[in-house]
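Hi there,

I know you've been waiting on this one. I reran it after we fixed the sequence typo, so this is the corrected version. Both the input and the resulting structure follow.
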Amino acid sequence: MRRSDLVRALAQVPSPPRPRAEWEQVVSPPERVADLLEATAGEGGLAGMSVLDLGSGTGRLAIGAALLDAAPVVGVDIDPTLVELARGAAHALGVSVDFRAADVREPAGMADYVVMNPPFGAQRPGADRPFWEAAFAHARRAVFAFALSESRTFIARRAVASGARVVASRPVPWELPRTFAHHSRRSVPIEVDLWTIRTGHEP
């Protein structure tokens, strides 16, 4: 699938209709989702790989992985409303994704790749930590994720402590649209990194 077709398909996945600030339910921009999915090429690509999306929201990362022939694909999110929206979006785009309403700290099984756009911890400090812990525990091959640039030291240390190895971390353009009541501007640029981390859980 061409990148332009992937981005157009991902744009059809809805945003959270009533985003909750305490869960930092923000939409993943289609272009950035495409960046993350393309980053998997350096680790073997998505075709035939199992994928786990932690904090899947309305499903853009998981659905994008399925559109690029990953299988099986599982998405986990704590909000059952978003899980239902994700299921509908996957059906509309003709892909198979197992979306589950659950906390990321609940066992989800191993996958070749974990992909995620976790909470950045801007509303609730430390909100991202359970996601990174789950990612390192459940990724057989690698983790591909977004995070605030200010979290670089924390993520690098957690990777080392988990026996993982950072392959790449690079800034990506990111415009955060007005989402919550306390947002006063139409959009604001934020400093976000895209991470590739090899976990080494393969036998």
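Quick highlight: Residues 24 and 119 are 6 Å apart (CA to CA).

Best,
R. S.
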